[in-house]
Write a structure and sequence with these properties.
By secondary structure, this protein is mostly helical. The protein contains seven helices and no strands. Helix 3 crosses helix 4 and helix 4 crosses helix 5. The longest helix is centred in the middle third of the chain and has 28 residues.
Length: 125
Amino acid sequence: NETNSENNHRRIPQPRSSRAGLQFPVGRIHKLLKTRSSVSTRVAATAAVYSAAIIEYLTAEVLELAGNAAKDLGLKRISPRHLQLAIRGDEELDNLIKATIAGGGVIPYIHKSLIKKASSKKSEQ
């Protein structure tokens, strides 16, 4: 009887992600950090939590900006074009993410010298 009661009061294992208050998988990131690092390097448990928190923050930031871009165009679904507009529209994210986004298109930009001046037309007439 004593062993059964002890087993019933044992703590239920809790994922490290929920302990850290994160959505991204801390355990999986820790495993990837260990496999990708050099052969004899040890990886602290807090390194995985910190990395997961950084990745989660950056993802939330990009998704928020892309969602705003989609909403501005009157759409409810985020496309690669919205991701491109969000990343290139934010100076810090643009410096951080140098990758080409497939299906993202280009950022709309017209050089000043190519734009005709409306005031000069009115003065001629």
